[in-house]
Amino acid sequence: MICGRFFRLLASAALVAAPFALQAQSQPAHVHGQIKLDVVVDGPTVVVTMESPLDNFVGFERAPRNDDEKKMVDEAVAKLRAADTLFTIDPAGNCKLGPVDLRAPVLGLGATPAGAPAAGHADLDATFAFNCASAAATKFIDVGLFTAFKGPRQIEVQIAAPQGQFKRTLKRPNARIAWSK
Ligand SMILES: [Zn+2]
To answer: In this prediction, what percent of the chain has a pLDDT beyond 90?
Structure first.
């Protein structure tokens, strides 16, 4: 889909019309099929922060309009809340899933973000926290987003770990984010 390009065109058109649209320009890139993950290994925790178009999980970016769509949303939310099946962390870390925070204002999840919403588009962002006995020992995470959902095709990952900072790109069907010295 060329949705991201379309969105930028809309954003620049809005820029001419309304000064407050400047905020829209500073929004993170919204490209259907793409997900951004930030992985931070710090102290006893592994925290995964996700930014994604809502489209990746349910195929639309608005409130559900009928029972079928409500069911799709409920199933997607349930899968995301069961994050220890979506993110299998290196067993060396001995990690257990902690708090999961889902943010999708059009679905009534999480707080309404500051700034104007992007017309016609919506994100589902999330923070998944894991508590680990040996967080610093982790060297990979197997990501189940490609098997759990049809929408995502590519995942851009940034990792900050005791071993250093790394960037990785996962393309379907590759599922492992690995890092080491
Ligand atoms: Zn979109």
So the answer is: 77
